[in-house]
Amino acid sequence: MRELIRREKNALRRDRWRAVLLAMDGHDAPTIACMLGRARRSVQDWAYAYRDGGLDAVQPKPRPGRPTKLPRQREAELIARLDAGPARGDGRLHVAW
Predict the structure, then answer these.
(1) Where are the alpha helices (DSSP H) in the chain?
(2) What percent of the chain stands above pLDDT 70?
(3) How far is Cα 24 from Cα 39, in angstroms, rounded to an integer?
């Protein structure tokens, strides 16, 4: 697990796995929370999730993110306009401020 933590680039996932490892080493939730800069309740939830479901249960759930402003139906139109290049034929990019 230590090697897995060392290679992980996602900070939230890495902290969840660190919390589990520290709990397995005998540290209590308030101490782990202080060490990781996370909430005590989160640390407890992660430790319980690991106990009940293993490493997969500790994974963060996907976040949907902000919806796009451009409707999906117009994506092809935008891509075509971008591929066509600048509107004028002089090769310069013209920006209207």
Answers:
(1) 2-7, 11-24, 29-36, 40-53, 75-84
(2) 88
(3) 18
